[in-house]
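Tokens for Carbohydrate binding family 9 domain-containing protein. Go.
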Amino acid sequence: MRLRVLLCCCVGLLTYQATAQTTAAADAAAAKVLAPKKQLNAVRITEAIKLDGQLDEASWQQAPMATDFIQNRPNPGPPEKHKTEVRVLYDDNNLYIGAIMHDVSGDSILRELTARDNFGNTDFIGIFLDTYHDKLNGYGFFVTTGGVQMDCRYSPAGGEDFNWNAVWDSRTTVKGKDWYAEMRIPYSAIRFSNLPEQRWGLNFMRQRKRDNQAFFWNEVKPAVDGFVNQWGTLEGIRDVKPPLRLSLTPYVSGYVNHNPLTEEGTRRTTTSFNGGADIKWGINESFTLDATLVPDFGQVQSDNQVLNLSPFEVQFNENRQFFTEGTELFNKGNLFYSRRVGATPIGFYNIGDTETEKVVKNPQETRLLNATKVSGRTSKGLGIGVFNAASNDVYATFRNKETGEERQQLTQPFSNYNIAVLDQSLKNNSYVSLINTNVTRFGRTYDANVTGGLFRFANKKNSYAVDGRLVYSRRRGHVFHEEDLISDRDGYKYQIGVSKISGSFTWGVNHGIESHSYNPNDLGILFGNNNISQGIYGNYNHYKPFWKVNNFYSYFGLDQSFLYKPTLYQKTNLYGGANTTFTKSFLTVGFNFDVNPINRDYFEPRQSPLGDYYVRVPANGNLGAFLSSDYRKKLAWDLNGGIRVYKEEDRFERARRLGIGFGVSPRYRVNNKLNFRYSLDWSTNRNQMGYVNPSSGDDGSLSDQYPEDAAVLKEFPRAVLLGRRRVVTVSNVLQAAYTFTNRMSLTVRTRHYTSTVRYLDFARLNPGGDEAPVAYTRNRDNTFDAFNVDAVYSWWFAPGSQVSIVWKNAGSSFLQANEATPLYFDNLSNIINTPHNNSVSVKILYYLDYLALRPRRA
């Protein structure tokens, strides 16, 4: 009997295990398959809709309802418990969305106010539209319980791009335990084909912030590659004509600037007044022209200036709206770095005082004359984009020290920047693209051209894909103000990859080459060419809750690179990481690591051509971790830290290299209108070996004008100087925001950055990576400080119309040798007491829409 019972138990256990495995396998297979496509019909109306968030017009009750939303996070799959009801109406000019979000009680509906395009601690409802139904590109419109608007574009190149702004209107109300949203989206805000009957991709999203839950009408599965391809469809829109999309947004602005560092004999307080306009013109139903005439970007957020010890330039964020919105086509292939347009003049760094002349003025920015974008997508899925911008001549001014006479020297010739893009959307979330960028400079200098082709082909099941690119760069002409021909005249880059793109486990392999003369940097950005790289990577993600966590995400990979010419080993990198969120506390934690054997850094010595000189980097490993608490709490924290340990060098009696860093960022929400955020980042690199960073007036190399340098150069004429140094960097950012209404806000952001470099000893770098100690006595220590205040008051007094008042305070200092100090509070005191530039500006934009201004027919 006991044996029989035991056998029955074993059979039952095996049966249960087999069933569980079969069920798990079935669930895993289902998670990789697109959800069934839902359909919703829009209803044409003739009565006027009053946008008040009430939904009391009879038309709303007659329209079909989208409901039965499916949870996407934190637990993908279950249906929503608190119903969402959305209806769509339309007329000849607008699309209307009415939504009712049911909840437990009014207290469960969170409603923090924020500035436009900022998600706060609040619920929201959103609609997604794929107006060409290509399953790749789309629009998103969101409104929060407090009436704050957010809008974005979706594309393979730009992902989810909230820099895009449209002119539309919305209202929300809270009634008992429900909240209502009413949205009016003019057809002029979107683009669609001129067909008798429209068929658009459609989805809705609801966020219930109380439980950190997000729901979609048409289920969006995280294990399926893509987002737009997982939307349902909107039917029933008939006999709608794309309108004449013509709008003018003129602006006027005034500035008062006080610069205490201005040369004697010139005004320290200056004023200026500017005027210009932005124009949007719908050329046809598919294409739009965007132009800015005499643009004014003086109110954009200040750049985060840093001390750059690397051999590569610093990449700054783009804060100018014209270059951030609607640029998804131009960002294909990452060949466009918009900060090149209106950048520092190419001759800026060649200007300096002489024995007889003093530099009075040397502008750091190139003023744009105009910029224009034409972009759109046909009904066949062909995206076409053309970008063009022109900048005027820039001159530096010299003054004779004896006579006082002034002369000007050209630092930037009149220049034209152009981009052309063709992007064909294909079936199965695939595409092919062609991109060309061109910079033409007038006068005796050089021009640059880059042409690239891209492709991505996925299989019918959307489970595997192959992608690649081929790019050719061409430069012709002379170095600015010199007789030498420009270098890097012809170059190329290619990359090919194969990947598994859907499922819990995804992977990919890739290989690429950037030739030694490939240079896209006249209108793009590349930190280093002359590279052969290959890698393999994988991801394992568990999207459903298990144990005590909501999910689990992990990644891992192995990369290796060589110089292209000559073909020499550079580095190998093994890396990985994971993160998860706990179910009850919504505490997110994660870690990352990487391991590197001995690497060769051919770029750090700043020698050309590459290959002879390199800095040996000992084998090292990094371990980092982060923690992020629940943002629904009034007080929330973000913490991160990491340590990189290097192997001791057998060649020298040096202390072991070590890198340590941490960051802490608390945020406190006083109420639904006022919040504070603070971030502190600290890092130190001990016994780092690197090229001696430049002092004022030099490039870091040895110079005969210094006796200490001359002594070394006399013995070693081709000496490359390295320094063993300790680098300590501290960054503090404090931001306070008060939102008066969903259309009026005040933000104050203060940033202090300091970085100190202290050299311990020096070495001479020889070909082949050998280093030899050198008796070098010149003090190369330095400290860089930067301080900024950006205070912005913004009021959207009408759709598309804004008043902004901005105060900027900025100062920086570069202390060298004995003046440099490693003490943080000494640096803070120094930068505060350094004279700062102050600017106060007022700018008024007014949106004029032709459709609203045209005479109405009787």
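The radius of gyration is 30 Å.
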